[in-house]
């Protein structure tokens, strides 16, 4: 385990205070749970946010490299088999250089976060509440929430809870906007699975083997086909394969219970600007799933050419980042 992974919480707090009433855990950061370390890049710090349950949630932070006072902070939420590190690799340096404070969360049971006393990491509701608690305690102004895959579904639930009544408005802090990246649609993944079974049975078998049976963890070719473009070099795929294998110590959801609770409640007259972003080479979320999410929010989807499901890690990661940056610039006008 490398020393570079170890970041002192007190040093982070002094250099980059999050807010005056921070609940930052004093838990030793050198005690890591992932067997494969992710070395933070220059300007990045790791800290632990203590949830009301007493469990600690890993947060990777990179502050903006140029001072733009009115730009909203960005809070990133990963999907299954990933953790906060997936945003820190390329998109954190990109967005911090553009004037944005960046925070990436590892949901419970993922990355370096604590593991709850259950068979799964949580529910749609508990994950959304953990995100909301972090924003309430640690983020000074309404952020833009960005979610990938199942992280996008968590954000959709968060959005559905905004302002529905006075109590929930306090539980779920206001947002400046939201970006759904290759997101699972509001109805969940069951529609995706059935479409694949009828139209692409071989692809359906591969997806099931890769994700449900975790075949991507042992097969380099299946890992590449599931998450990345064909052009990504094998040694890079191997590194990400090892990180994804270590990132999830327990399932993010009980999928049967999750699908029984869907679709996400509708949000008529949604008060947020929302960007629905997809990838034309996505092996998991198909074009119909992308259109479903966009229609749900009354926006036009943006499909990025030449990238796969893990848009933030793929060989052409900058394509999606530039689309988001352009959307953010419009948000700031």
Write structural notes for this entry.
Residues 74-314 form the AB hydrolase-1 domain. One of its GO terms (molecular function) is carboxylic ester hydrolase activity. It comes from Lotus japonicus (Lotus corniculatus var. japonicus). The structure is a single chain. The longest helix has 15 residues, at 124-138. The protein has a single domain, classed as Rossmann fold (3-Layer(aba) Sandwich), CATH 3.40.50. The chain has an eight-stranded mixed β-sheet, with helices on both faces. The chain is globular and about 50 Å long. The model is unreliable at 1-22 and 25-31 (pLDDT under 50). With 333 residues, it is of the alpha/beta class. A hairpin with a 5-residue loop joins β1 and β2. It contains 13 helices and eight strands.
Distance from first to last alpha carbon:
45 Å
Radius of gyration: 18 Å
CATH fold label: Rossmann fold
The number of domains is 1
Low-confidence stretches: 1-22, 25-31
Q: Strand share of the residues?
A: 5-15%
What would you give as the CATH superfamily?
A: Alpha/Beta hydrolase fold, catalytic domain
Helix content: 25-40%
Spatially, the strands of the biggest sheet line up as: 1-2-4-3-5-6-7-8
- SSE succession: HEEEHHEHEHHEHHHHHEHEH
Number of strands: 8
Number of helices: 13
Q: How does CATH name the architecture?
A: 3-Layer(aba) Sandwich
Shape: globular
Largest sheet: 8 strands, mixed
Residue-averaged pLDDT, rounded? 86
Q: Which structural class is indicated by helix and strand composition? A: alpha/beta
């Amino acid at each position: 385990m490398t020393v570079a992974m170890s970041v002192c919480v007190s040093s982070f707090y002094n250099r980059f205070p999050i807010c005056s009433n921070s609940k930052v855990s004093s838990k030793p950061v050198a005690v890591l749970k992932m067997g494969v370390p992710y070395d933070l890049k220059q300007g990045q710090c790791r800290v632990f946010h203590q949830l009301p349950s007493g469990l600690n949630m890993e947060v990777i932070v990179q502050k903006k490299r140029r001072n733009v006072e009115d730009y909203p902070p960005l809070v990133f939420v990963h999907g299954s088999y990933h953790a906060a590190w997936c945003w820190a690799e390329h998109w954190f340096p990109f967005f911090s250089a553009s004037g944005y404070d960046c925070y990436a969360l590892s949901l419970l049971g993922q990355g370096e976060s604590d593991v709850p006393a259950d068979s799964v990491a949580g529910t749609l509701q508990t994950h959304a509440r953990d995100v909301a608690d972090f924003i309430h305690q640690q983020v000074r102004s309404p952020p833009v929430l960005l979610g990938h895959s199942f992280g996008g579904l968590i954000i959709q639930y968060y959005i559905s809870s905004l302002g529905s009544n006075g109590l929930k408005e306090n539980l779920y802090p206001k947002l400046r906007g939201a970006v759904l990246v290759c997101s699972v649609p509001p109805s969940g993944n069951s529609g995706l699975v059935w479409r694949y079974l009828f139209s692409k049975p071989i692809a359906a078998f591969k997806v099931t083997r890769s994700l449900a049976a975790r075949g991507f963890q042992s097969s380099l070719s299946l890992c590449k086909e599931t998450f990345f473009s064909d052009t990504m070099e094998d040694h890079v795929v191997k590194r990400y394969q090892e990180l994804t294998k270590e990132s999830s110590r327990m399932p993010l959801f009980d999928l049967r219970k999750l699908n029984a609770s869907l679709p996400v409640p509708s949000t008529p007259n949604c008060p947020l600007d929302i960007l629905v972003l997809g990838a034309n080479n996505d092996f998991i979320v198909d074009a119909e799933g992308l259109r479903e999410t966009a229609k749900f929010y009354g926006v036009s989807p943006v499909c990025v050419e030449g990238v796969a499901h893990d848009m933030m890690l793929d060989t052409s990661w900058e394509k999606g980042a530039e689309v988001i940056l352009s959307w953010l610039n419009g948000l700031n006008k």
